[in-house]
User: Fold this.
Amino acid sequence: MKTQTDLILTAMKVIFWVVFIGLCIKTGALLISFIVSLAVNPEAASNLYLGLDLSELQNTNQWYYIHVASFIISISALKGYLAFLVLKIFSKIDFKKPFTEATSLLISKISHIALGIGVLAIIASRYNIWLIRSKESILDTQYYLDGGKEFLLLAGIIFIISLIFKKGIDLQTENELTV
Assistant:
């Protein structure tokens, strides 16, 4: 019989698979519709993904459209990569000896990716606000570009956890040498 912790970990693994697959689909759909809007049919910008309409921005200024769409696609792709790294932790971690160098590196990488997402989201959000204030755009894409502060907080928390993990590796190694 599985313990409650095993059930929770299994449920989290399933949830992260769903999140990862969903973010891959979202990123792929955004990327393909963005390429189609540039190369084949400019009207594709009117529905990039689930009603995201950047056609007005594309008609106003092609470069601003490319910038905003690139920010949205990049943030989505980095979120998918973050979910992928969490899935890698699930496959690498051994709860009998959890403090391994591979797990520590993955946790550290997750903190760096979360920091990157946070910084990119803040830059993208500020860029969007600048476009709105300069009357280049009246589009509200904040839903797709928001969350930078939350990802910075997440990056900080995960970085602290990675430092604790590194200390755990040192203690585990020292304990194995003394026994």
